[in-house]
Specification:
Strand order of the largest sheet: 5-6-7-8-9
Shape: elongated
Structural class: alpha/beta
Oligomer: single chain
Strand content: 15-25%
Largest sheet: 5 strands, antiparallel
Helix content: 40-55%
Order of helices and strands: EHHEHHEHEHHHHEEEEEH
Distance between the termini: 39 Å
Radius of gyration: 23 Å
């Protein structure tokens, strides 16, 4: 088995291919047009794709450029030794493919889930929920650094941070900053007050987060 021109798709890559992911569509089209290229799909990954999206296995079976592998131990070892590149598509990568609004939605959902998993730090959860409730902050790409929330007007790293808020610790105040762990310009007693203070310092006319980084917009 040669690795030249050969890739392996897992179930996440299959789902992205079916959804029209541009990179995977390019991989498929070039493979379909070249006999020197191969796309391998382990049947276990096909089974997971079918489990995630019932009926998708029949669709993938109709794609002529896909070669399905029923991997026993020996075959799995051979694939591993061949050093074939495995294509995996993360939820964040899929969000970037859909656009900045999807990235922002994913970041907020992830942040709220993290807050829910930190019951011993209720001030962090209160801050996340207060920030999410504000439409001006909710349209920005949220991230955290040592429990401090940052709000970026772009979805890629390095972020273009427009405001940051540190949660109350040990009964202390919420801290409003320009950037995480930078000079504090405001202290408040509640998460809602901290959010209001941060929003008041946002640039006039700031819109939803855009694709790109602080160095370059796409």
């Amino acid at each position: 088995m040669t690795s030249a021109g050969t890739v392996v798709l897992d179930h996440t890559a299959l789902a992205a291919l079916a959804a029209g992911n541009r990179f995977l569509s390019y991989v498929y089209d070039t493979t379909h047009q070249s006999p020197q290229r191969r796309i391998l799909v382990p049947t276990s990954c096909l089974a997971q794709a079918e489990r995630d999206r019932p009926g998708s296995a029949d669709y993938f079976a109709s794609l002529e450029a896909l070669t399905f592998l029923d991997l026993d131990l020996a075959a799995a070892s051979a694939v591993g030794r061949a050093g074939l590149p495995f294509l995996h598509v993360s939820e964040r990568a899929e969000a970037h493919e859909r656009g900045p609004a999807s990235v922002v939605e994913l970041q907020w959902r992830t942040m709220r889930e993290e807050a829910a998993e930190a019951p011993d730090f209720p001030a962090f959860g209160e801050l996340v929920e207060a920030a999410h409730a504000d439409p001006k902050l909710r349209q920005l790409c949220v991230f955290s650094s040592h429990w401090t929330l940052g709000f970026s007007s772009c979805t890629g790293f390095p972020f273009r941070v427009e405001a940051a808020i540190a949660p109350s610790r040990n009964g202390g105040p919420y801290l409003v900053m320009e950037h995480p762990h930078s000079i504090v310009f405001g202290e408040t007693a509640t998460a809602e007050e901290a959010v209001a203070a941060a929003v008041s310092r946002l640039p006039t006319g700031l819109g939803p987060a855009v694709a790109g980084t602080a160095d370059r917009d796409e």
